[in-house]
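Reopening this ticket.

The earlier resolution said the output was attached, but the attachment link was broken on my side. Pasting everything inline this time so it's all in one place.
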Amino acid sequence: MRVARLCQYFYGMDSIESGLMPYFYNIVRELGKRGVENIVITPEADSGDVDGTQVRRIPAKGRLTLLRQGIDAYKNISGLKDAIDIIHTHMHGFFYLYHYKGRLGKPMVHTIHGTAFSYKYQPMRQSASRDTLYSYLFNRYACKSADAIVTVSSEERENVINSFGVDRYKVNYIPTAVDTARFRPLKMDKDIDVLYVGRFARKKAVPVLLKAAASVKKGKSLKICLVGGNKGDDDYNSIMGMIRKYGLSNVEIIAAVNHQKLAEYYNRAKVFVLPSYHEGMPKVLLEAMACGVPVVATNVCGNRDVVDERAGFLVKAGDPQNLAHKIKELLEDDGLRSRMGREGRRRVERRFTWDKIAEEHIKLYRSVCEQ
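Inline output:
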């Protein structure tokens, strides 16, 4: 079986940092182990073929980028269609490729990473509102035409069925996964009280975490580590102002790091916190749990698929008091942290490993090819 896989970027293991980079690399690797050959079409990638995977680059356009990417992808696939069995798109930016579905004559699968419905969850800046509108409209266009749809959270599956008006049988919940060999418990000093990993974007609600941390510390130094900030941008500057406002003197901000280093940060943490207003399928929760770290996350779409009461706590989004209470409860109870950490690792091993996710994709591919 050969799959033309269209994604926003594709990098080898040595270049992977954050975002969806590990997803694309790992799903291609695991499918390859099972005899599924991938041809990746992307505007951004390492030079040459990537770790044995054939990569075709399309230009990253300026004006009308999303429309032109779909046209360029069509031109690429037109020359491949006799050599491929399935077309799988992984971003709404390739929506216009579905305009050519009849000409291509191949089954098409579309995956929604994150959510197409973020307008429901939080107030947006003007630029974010535009991106949110594009995500909704272009994902809807792709889903209407696709032979099968993949969502990475169970609630997003229901959103797609109910809001886009597509047949239930077409929509499949297949979560993301984590490399449990790379992210695993290590014997390291627990010198970080609270760890956060991710962007500083508004939807990630880092200010809520800082306000909660100010409530927890009560005169003692609470070691907080924030991994993922881009020094000098507006979100970074806003976070720095709040750190000063709340008198948090022991906060370390780290830029994005590679996976090996990231696993070390998880293992140094007593508690991992994800205070987002909304998520798709948060890989950082899976990474923390795979490392045996108890988690406190918001009770929102995506997080609910990952965290149960044995592995961590779910709290109301935007509620620093409740967040502070659960952080404090974990910091003050070594036994509880240990139990939740072990259960989190077990939960990941049962449901969120790449071998399981690859098998679910193969089953889906076979199904659409037989239709």
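Reporter confirms the inline version is readable. The first helix runs from residue 21 to 33. The mean pLDDT is 88.
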